[in-house]
Amino acid sequence: MTSLQLLLDGFAAALTPVNLLYALIGVTLGTLVGVLPGIGPAMTVALLLPITFTVPPASAFIMFAGIYYGGMYGGSTTSILLNTPGESSSMITALEGNKMARRGRAAQALATAAIGSFVAGTIATALLVVAAPAVVSFAIAFGPEDYFALAILAFTAVSSVLSRSIVRGLASLGLGLVIGLIGIDQQTGQARLTMGIPQLLDGIDVVIVAVGLFALGEALYVASRLRHAPPEVVPVGRAWMGRSDWRRSWLPWLRGTALGFPFGALPGGGAEIPTFLSYAAEKRLARGVAREEYGKGAIEGVAGPEAANNASAAGTLVPLLTLGLPTSATAAILLAAFQQYGLQPGPQLFDHNPALVWGMIASLFIGNTMLLVLNLPMAPLWARVLRIPRPYLYAGIVLFAALGVYALNGSVVDLFVLYVLGLLGYAMRRFGLPVAPAVIGMILGPMAEIQLRRALAIGAGDVSVLVRSPIAAVLLALSALALLAPVLRKLLARRGLAPAPSNDE
């Protein structure tokens, strides 16, 4: 079947009343948590992972996809109205968006962010439909050594990009790899790092790790820095755009989409780099009134980065669905959700579960439309949400996290592990260690270990088998390049050819 036929079948599955309801719940929750500073889509999906035990896979992933896209939409609201980005990818939006709001143009800033997100999300999802089958046909030829090299690339790329320094990124990755070792060795049957606790023989459930490090750790960290004064929210009316705003926004939307999608699909690409590049490009291309307004609230500085942000979200799904490779924190949590259902993203997922994959992709088109309808008329309501007292909010998160984890097995040991991981997540944030590499290490570590053992068994113990495949050799070379990049920057800086890196590196 062609991609178009499979996509039409996906729409047939996604347009059922039950799945439409889950899509609506997802985009509403995603927008809500995106609006609230300090709560992102990764944290929300982590909190909702326990529902994977009671909801059918297709419905769950349609809801998770809605949360992912909705979080990208909602993050712009906080950036524009509070000058407080909910996620790092929304930082650039705050530069011009909040200045527009303080000039009385909050409605126009929210409108260009919402419409730009819709345009970028729709185009990027269409590109996902085209790109995914091509990547799947390439990945079918992967052997054990290729998958091991792919995991190494994910480890190094995510550790180097999602942290201020490679050292901190690798330290976080090491913690995740150690957590992934807990339990019975699948090959030898020996217990590892269980400390004599029977409940740990099956390892630590990925749901507990995700909820502990992301949700509980973030709640503790933000609560420790709460300001007692209520946030100052810029008043906003119904989101709308005039003719001049449309004329100044449509090209930045398209340029932002062109930058965001490929970066999202790259291991470690993320949304931060394309949003910054989009802002820089629009500032360089600005003429006339736009040039004068940059730094004071230029609409182009909101339209382009928001489009790049949402396009990168669709790009992230390409390596996740086709290779099982998460390139962002939310993608890592989605990978954990797949594993809860006993599914492994990759070429076989497209062959054995086409209805699930294409239903999820089709729901992105539907969710984008829902988000546009939600965000334009309901902007004043989302602004009121920002006035929720933070102590109540984060106390609710801690309670919901504990209830969700206890519902998994009814085990007090799970709760104890949750709180230990929550304290670990707090400490990681306190000392500048990124959380995403730890979660990715915990999820991909066991897979990398199994593939390494298979490759060495095929090669009769000869280590050179790991580089005999051209694919594996290229992937390992890219991994080495990611690790050596800071050293190269230092050498270039000494010769005056590049800016000096930070001391963390």
UniProtKB/TrEMBL annotation:
Segments passing through the bilayer: 20-39, 45-69, 109-132, 138-158, 165-184, 204-223, 317-338, 358-379, 391-409, 415-444, 465-488
Superkingdom, natural source: Bacteria
Keywords, comma-separated and alphabetical: Membrane, Transmembrane, Transmembrane helix
InterPro entries: DUF112_TM (IPR002823)
Domain DUF112 stretches: 20-440
Coiled coil (residue ranges): none
Name of the featured protein: Tripartite tricarboxylate transporter TctA
